[in-house]
Design brief:
single chain; 332 residues; mainly alpha; 18 helices; membrane; UPF0718
C-alpha cells in the first residue's frame, strides 16, 4: 500500500510539473483567472530550478542504479582505502572527477554506503563532488574571468572543507550506520523485480526509475520552497545588513541556502552580486550552496537519520563560515 501511494504521489508531482511548465498568461486570461505577477515569477523560478536539476538528478540515479547492479561489495572493499584518515583525501579526489551536482551525488553516496563505503568517506564525497567537479570549475572560470582568485579559493576551500567535515563526522559517528532504512529499501519493489529473470540492464532501469520517483518528490517540494522565498525575500533589507564582512558573509550563505541553485550554474548568479557584495561573501555563497541548500536538505532528511542530518548541517555551517572568515583575514 505504501509503495502504491508513493508511486501515485510521484506521478501526481510529475503531472503538476508538466502543467506548470505548459500554462501561460493567455490560458489563465481565457479562463478569467488573474494571477499576480509575483506568483508568475515564482512559477518561472520553480521551473528553472527543476530544469537545471533534473538532468543531473537523472545522471545521479542512473549512476546509483549502475553501482547497485555492477559494483559488488567485494570490489568496493578492495578499492577503498583501509586507513580511516588517509582515505579522506582519496574520497575528496574521487569527488573532483565526478561530474555531478549536489542533488545527483546524494543517491550515489547512499548506494555506496549501502554497499559498504564508510560513512565519513561518503560524507567527503557528498561535500567535494558538487564543488570540485570539472563542470563547476569551468563555469566558475567563465563567470569570474576578471578575478580568478574566486575560482582558486573555491576549489581550494572545497577540497579542504570536505576533508575537515568528513573528519568531524568520523570523530562524532565513527563507522555507525546513519542511513534511514525503509521497508521498500529492505524488501520492496526492487527486490521483487530482482527475483524476476531479467537482464542487468533492465534491472538498472528499474532501480533508476524507483529512485527517480522517490527522490523527485523531495526535489519538487524543495524547489517550490526555494522559488517562493526567492520572490518574496526583501533584498533591500539584506543590503542594509551588509555593513560588516561577517554580516555580508552570513547573508550570502543564507541566500545560497534559500536559492538552491545547482552548483554548475551558481557562479553566474554569484557574479551578478559582485557590485553589492565583497569577494569574501561571494566565496561563502559559492562554497556553502553546494554543501547545503533547501532542496538537498530535504534529501538528507529523506535518506539519513534526523540526528545525523542536524549535526551535519551545523558542522557544514560553522566550518564554512569560520574558514571563509579566516581566508578573508589572512589572505584577502
Amino acid at each position: 500500500m505504501v509503495t502504491i501511494m508513493r508511486d501515485i504521489i510521484g506521478i501526481l508531482a510529475f503531472l503538476v510539473f508538466v502543467m506548470l511548465f505548459l500554462y501561460n498568461t493567455e490560458v489563465l486570461e481565457y479562463f478569467g483567472i488573474i494571477v499576480p505577477d509575483q506568483w508568475l515569477h515564482v512559477n518561472t523560478i520553480f521551473i528553472s530550478i527543476l530544469l537545471e536539476a533534473f538532468p543531473f538528478v537523472l545522471l545521479g540515479v542512473f549512476t546509483s542504479a549502475f553501482i547497485q547492479m555492477f559494483v559488488s561489495e567485494e570490489t568496493l572493499r578492495k578499492v577503498l582505502p583501509k586507513h580511516a584518515y588517509f582515505g579522506l583525501i582519496s574520497a575528496a579526489l574521487l569527488g573532483a572527477v565526478l561530474p555531478v551536482c549536489e542533488c545527483a551525488i546524494i543517491p550515489v553516496v547512499r548506494r555506496l554506503i549501502k554497499k559498504g563505503m564508510p560513512l565519513h568517506f561518503g560524507v567527503v564525497l557528498m561535500m567535494s563532488a558538487p564543488i570540485l567537479n570539472p563542470i563547476v570549475a569551468a563555469s566558475t572560470y567563465y563567470a569570474f574571468q576578471q578575478d580568478l582568485s574566486v575560482l582558486y579559493f573555491r576549489m581550494g576551500l572545497g577540497f579542504i572543507l570536505s576533508i575537515v567535515i568528513g573528519f568531524i563526522i568520523y570523530r562524532l559517528f565513527g563507522s555507525t550506520n546513519q542511513l534511514r532504512w525503509t521497508k521498500d529499501g529492505l524488501t520492496g519493489a526492487a527486490g521483487i523485480r530482482k527475483s524476476v529473470r531479467t537482464s542487468k540492464v533492465k534491472q538498472t532501469f528499474y532501480h533508476a526509475s524507483d529512485e527517480f520517483f522517490d527522490m523527485g518528490k523531495y526535489l519538487i517540494f524543495g524547489a517550490s520552497l526555494a522559488s517562493i522565498v526567492n520572490v518574496f525575500l526583501d533584498r533591500t533589507m539584506l543590503a542594509a545588513l551588509t555593513s560588516t564582512e561577517a554580516g555580508a558573509t552570513g547573508i550570502m550563505m543564507g541566500l545560497a541556502f534559500i536559492m538552491s541553485l545547482c552548483s554548475e550554474a551558481d557562479a553566474f548568479v554569484a557574479s551578478s552580486f559582485s557590485n553589492q557584495f565583497s569577494t569574501t561573501s561571494l566565496l561563502a555563497f559559492l562554497v556553502f550552496g553546494p554543501l547545503l541548500d533547501l532542496k538537498n536538505t530535504l534529501l538528507y532528511f529523506a535518506y539519513f537519520k534526523t540526528k545525523f542530518v542536524l549535526i551535519l548541517m551545523v558542522t557544514i555551517t560553522v566550518v564554512t563560515f569560520g574558514s571563509v572568515m579566516l581566508v578573508h583575514y589572512l589572505l584577502m
